[in-house]
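PROTEIN DATA CARD
Card holder: Elongator complex protein 5
Chain length: 338
Origin: Mycena rosella
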Amino acid sequence: MFFNLEPRRRQQPFLLLQSSTAQSCIGIIPQLLGDAKGHALLFCLLHSSLLSLQAPHVQTYDLLDNVPGYSDNYVDPRQRIQAAVENAPSGPLDFIIDSVDTLSSDIASVSETYKFLHELMVLIRERSSPSRLIIHALSPSPLLPLLAQPGFSPSLTQVISHPPSLLIHLSTEYLTLPPPLSPEAKFWGIFMPVSERGEESERLIFGAGGEGTGDNDELVLEVIVRGDAEGLRRRGVDRTLQGWSLTRGTCPLAEMSALKSLWSRNVAEPTVVDPTQNISFNLNLTASQQNSRAQVPLPYVHEGKLVEKQPPASAAIFYDPDSADDLDDDDPDEDLDI
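Structure generated from the sequence above:
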């Protein structure tokens, strides 16, 4: 497989692709279609670049101009999408919607959009495996937390795109490198709250010292896998990081040109500074001086002898009278008439 997000599991029936303003993952859709095992239906509501895909097993639907209130021949996109699924040839089917936020805008209701997508999910599950519903969403989106819930699909593969500069930022500001260079618990404890703040990545890209645009050739994919192809939560939730390249597909993070600096940083051996250098006198000993020094007996009282334990003596107070002390045996109060 040229593009495999789940190398150790069977293919999930629901794949949620999540882009952001700082980094888009639209570039992986052509590779997903190229890797499809059966017929594929692609509905384009946002990105016109997907219309140029040419493959015998891919059927593309152009809904870019189907805008409510602006198109003379506007048709509810739900009708076209559901009809396309029902009339698709038998066998495995990949069904892609780009993007679900545009679909929700056309329907003008988040709840109605969720209900429609849930119906599509049921139709996809009724088809022969491996059939998939692939949804592309833009973060932040009110639909994302709803689609990621087990109520929509018990099994899920969620792919969140991040700019490589985010990992460089974490290594610089938080001194935390991606696994295996740092412990996973430490890395995810820092990475997750930072990555969920979208303004952090946007500042790295669009800020004063930013790149100005996300990298279309290389990006970092956060892959979250829940359950398996049958919808059973046998291993809970797995969260990993993968690199992605336009020319190579998925690749290890260490092989990404944007992140090679993180792996090529060799920790220099600490330099031992000689305190006796650059001084006007010599503090070093010659060989004869070191030999003479070694022959000097150490002034230890008990050297080479075993110290015997003495029994503890009873406590006593010894007092040496001072010359000014007036000590006598007479009664000091004898002159009192008592």
